[in-house]
Amino acid sequence: GLTQLTFAPADTTKTITDKGTMADPTAPTGSKDFRSVTKFVDKNTYVFEMFTADNDGKEFKMMEITYKRF
Question: Tens digits of per-residue pLDDT, 53-69?
Fold first, then answer.
């Protein structure tokens, strides 16, 4: 499926926030809204977090990845 998102550029907090819709065959509508946040910790580290909502609409973190350059 196709994922569509909107992009909010990094500001002084060194954070990028995306919001969009992704295909989800388990969702009643066949798609689900999501939000992702990329935080730039330092020049060698950033953290990617992805959030979505359960079927009752309560948001939860579904994934977190820490990237490091060695």
Answer: 887 889 999 999 999 99
Q: What is the full DSSP assignment across 15-63?
A: EEEEEEEEE-TTSTTSEEEEEEEEEEEETTEEEEEEEEE-TTS-EEEEE
DSSP state of 6: E
Entry pTM = 0.77
Q: How far apart are CA 19 and CA 32, in angstroms?
A: 11
Q: What would the two tokens of residue 12 be?
A: 């002084």
Distances from the Cα of 24 to the Cα of 28, 49, 59, 65, 69, angstroms: 9, 18, 16, 21, 32
